[in-house]
Amino acid sequence: MTTRALIIVDVQNDFCTGSLATERGPEVAALIGSFLGSETADLNEYTHVVATQDWHIDPGSHFSVHPDFIDSWPVHCKADTEGAAIHSAIDTSKIVAFFRKGEYEAAYSGFEGKSEGVLLADWLREKNVDAIDICGIATDHCVRATALDGIKEGFQVRVLTGMCAAVDNKRGDQALNEVHAAGAELI
User: Fold this and answer.
1) What's the CA angle centered on 54, arms 69 and 8, to 5 degrees?
2) How far apart are the C-alpha atoms of 94 and 49, rounded to whole Å?
3) Which of 16, 135, 142, 164 is catalytic?
């Protein structure tokens, strides 16, 4: 029997309405919020719902006054700020663990994040999770990296494409093609 977790990737204020807002960020936050608020069979298939968060303290060259929007970015998701908070459309009481990443360096994959000192892959294994569904922001960066690392870690991976927002739609489509080619299911 498959034990599946939902991973909500970086649906934070700065990626929805703040310094690095994606075009569909608020819409995706609302979709995920509605999904979590429903009592559907789809939601009931998850034994755990977790979230990742950029949680920057001093990530070095990840922040730039002149960002290239590929490897360097404007200041965003500073630890303990409103910009780093999960968007208010999402009921965080449904989330059992928050995996924070990127304190002192760039971090794109949720698998780089820790909750109470435990890495995401280790936490999932402790809970006997063998399959993950991923949604969130941004398709072409953190969703992509989380999906690829999930595959590398041996999890069955599905990406909930309708509940993802890209920084750049063309790169977002390329990222989805890449994760599908690597073994993820796109739904």
Assistant:
1) 105
2) 7
3) 142
The answer to whether the bond into 131 is cis (omega within 30° of 0) is no
CB 44 within 8 A of CB 94: no
Is 42 noted as a catalytic residue in this protein? no
Which residue in the list 10, 133, 140, 149 is annotated as catalytic? 10
Instruction: For residues 108 and 123, give the distance between their C-alpha atoms in angstroms, rounded to a whole number.
Output: 18
- Tokens at 186, concatenated: 């796109």
How far is the C-alpha of 20 from the C-alpha of 153, rounded, in Å?
Answer: 29
Is 152 known to be catalytic?
no
Average pLDDT, 10 consecutive residues per value, the chain (187 residues): 95 96 97 88 86 96 91 94 97 96 96 98 98 98 98 98 96 98 98
127 catalytically annotated: no
* Catalytic hit among 14, 101, 133, 164: 101
